[in-house]
Amino acid sequence: MTNVRLIPALSILFVSITCFGAWAAPGLSKEVKLSAEREAIVMAPSWRTATTQPALMVLERAPDKSKQISFALLVLAMETGPESTDGIDWKKVRDNIVAAANAAGSPLSLELKEPFTAAKGLVGRHLSGTTKVKERTVKVEMIALVAPKVLLTISSVGRTDDVGVADLATKVATTARLTPAP
Fold first, then answer.
1. Which CB contacts under 8 angstroms, 24+ apart, belong to 29-37?
2. Residue 26 has pLDDT above 50, yes or no
3. What letters, b where the CB count within 10 A reaches 16 and e where it falls short, cover 32-60?
4. Strands 72-79 and 150-158
5. Helix (H) or strand (E) holding 10
6. Residue 62 and residue 56: Cα distance in Å, rounded?
7. How is residue 176 annotated by DSSP?
8. What is the pLDDT of residues 98-127, one digit of tens each?
9. Of the candidates 58, 59, 55, the residue with the CA atom closest to the CA atom of residue 34
10. Nearest one of 100, 85, 98, 95 to 145, comparing CA atoms
11. CB-based contact 36:145 (threshold 8 Å)
12. What percent of the chain has pLDDT over 70?
């Protein structure tokens, strides 16, 4: 008799885990191109484009309470980076990112985390922290990728209890590639 009750319970658990996984890690079906010194291409979820400029794109996922999906942003930015990938001063990179965000009115705090090595031809670092959006503290997970004269940042922003925030930045960063240097 207990096995009969256990099978539906396990089925519900499996379906819940599967649905949660789909919610936390959306498919990356949208090709995004950013242009600065060079062109970068990444794959991103097909969320609504909130901002688009040659070197910046912000994608937005609207909340859907019926599907337990919370609000999230994916910020993709490209700018001039260090001359070389040798001996990158990641504290300086972080400080520059934080200073730029604060100057733009977005109070940002970031901690340096582990190196990121999953983007071919780019040297990377994981950063993690928080910012304020409309008086709410939200989680920021960022992968900073460097090639000579290029800094590409991939940031996912979401609720502090959203486990998918870190996964999204990592998955998108893994797809990053640069066009050949001129």
1. 30/59, 32/57, 32/59, 32/76, 34/76, 34/77, 34/78, 34/152, 35/78, 36/78, 36/79, 36/80, 36/150, 37/80, 37/149, 37/150
2. yes
3. bebebbbbbebbbbebeeeeeeebebbbe
4. antiparallel
5. helix 2-24
6. 20
7. -
8. 999 999 888 999 999 999 999 999 999 999
9. 55
10. 85
11. no
12. 84
pLDDT at 67: 65
| Tokens linked to 175 | 């797809």
Rounded CA separation 8/180 (Å): 54
pTM equals 0.81
Distance CA 60, CA 72 (A): 6
Length of the chain: 182
- The pLDDT tens digits of the residues spanning 42-86 come to 999 999 999 999 999 999 987 777 766 678 899 999 999 889 999
Tokens found for residue 182? 């001129």
Q: What is the pLDDT of residue 154?
A: 97
d(CA 102, CA 91): 16
